[in-house]
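Lecture 7 notes: from sequence to structure.

We start with a single chain of 294 residues. Read the sequence below before looking at the structure.
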Amino acid sequence: MANTSPPVDTTRPGATTTSMTNDSPPAKSRRGRGGRQKLASVGWAAAPPATFVVIILLWAAAVEIFTIPSYLLPSPMAVLSRMFDERSNLLAQAVPTLEALGIGLLLCLVISIPAGLLIALSKVAKQTIYPIVMLMQLVPKIAIAPLLLVWLGFSIQTKVGLVVLIAFFPLLMSSIAGFVSLDDRLLYLTRSMGASKMQTFWRLRLPAALPIIFSGIKTCATIAITGALVAEFLASNEGLGYALLRAGSQLDTTYIFAILVVLTLIGIVINYLIEAVEWWLTPWQRHQKQQGKK
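Now the structure, written as tokens:
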């Protein structure tokens, strides 16, 4: 069949100009959008440290403007200077605190996640173990500390025990919520495809529960730091909690702030470590975030 469409005059100046005019704006628009998105992501990432810097500047300005005595509120430079002067002592006191904190967190992981899986999947465990756990949670942990002190003395076991008692419950609840969050239709689908229970657990149930479990781990780590300090308040003669208690009794406010800065840095490092492990173990979340940005 002959082509009856009219010939296109490619020699006209308007043809080439029109093509370039139609193609150029979208390309420029995409480049501009990409640049704005990169700039926005950089600004968004810089927001937390910028906020922290603003708080420090406001703190320093308040001390200077209102001439606040150092025993009430020392300046940031005084705190940094005291941290530098006491760096060896602060490091020595941080070691036992980190030791009790690390062992307590590991025990929380070993105890809470398997217990959460057991309670989530077993009706018998839910009816027998879960009430005991709830009863233990209702008992004030400060009231248990003297018993631990009598049984274990001034030792690291006392601090670790108190850390576990204080911090394990949030992780247990997150583990239970994570393991029961899976849609039953997905379980039916895997069974219909012939997957074994172990395959279903490793490939479906555990990946679905990991984001919720990691949320509980972050909460557990925060509470564990508090538990370690409380344990050193009550049952220790070393550690950052003990140093904080002594500084408070001597009204050494600058040293108290120095210890608080060290504790804050420890908490930040632990939080970033947990986020790094979560980033490594949940690659599908990274893929979903990248797809969402596109």
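The radius of gyration is 29 Å. Keep this in mind for problem set 3.
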